[in-house]
Amino acid sequence: MQGYLDPHYFMTNRFTDKSDVYSFGVVLLEVVTGKLPIRGDKSIIKEVITALEGGEIDLVIKDIVDPNLGDYPVMAAKRLVEIALDCVQDEPDERLTMSEVVKELEALIHGTTTKGSINVERTGGNSNLYGEQSPYMRQKNNRTSFEYSGSYIGMSKPFQPK
After folding, report:
1. What percent of the chain has pLDDT over 90?
2. 96 with 83: CB under 8 angstroms?
């Protein structure tokens, strides 16, 4: 669990909906970077923030992303990192809600963001992905995939550890 727990939890000893958002943000960073949340005394969150402080996100993103991902849309990876960082803010009030995260991820799947359209410039070495549609999108076009209802409801009462 180390690395996934909300820092606010350590101060209050209470889990909230925003604690889940924090943990999900850590998982997103794991997926994008291919790194564990804690390695020795290094935190994935601090590593990504430090890398981004060292340069413009458009230039740094290629260094952050796990090379095992192969070919990927650079702007989508950039937006995914931004969403993850919005989830792992130290203060819970500054984090996205889970419904906002879902909306952002859905927009990303459709090639847009709540901030506009995504440039589909790709990087990586798997050139056969350029013209192909992802399995998810093929499924979506066949109307067999899960459709988000937009009605995410948070926990009705706060989770209290025993």
Report:
1. 37
2. yes
Residue 135's pLDDT band, with cuts at 50, 70 and 90, is very low
Residue 153 to residue 24: CA distance in whole angstroms:
16
d(CA 137, CA 110): 8
- Residue range of the domain that includes 129: 7-141
Predicted model pTM: 0.69
Residue 27 is assigned to a structural domain of this protein: yes
In sequence order, what are the residues at sequence separation of 6 or more whose Cβ sits closer than 8 angstroms to the Cβ of residue 2?
A: 37, 38
pLDDT tens digits for range 18-34: 999 999 999 999 999 99
Per DSSP, the three-state class of 122 is strand
H-type helices in 39-97, by residue range?
44-53, 57-64, 74-87
Residue 149 lies in a domain: no
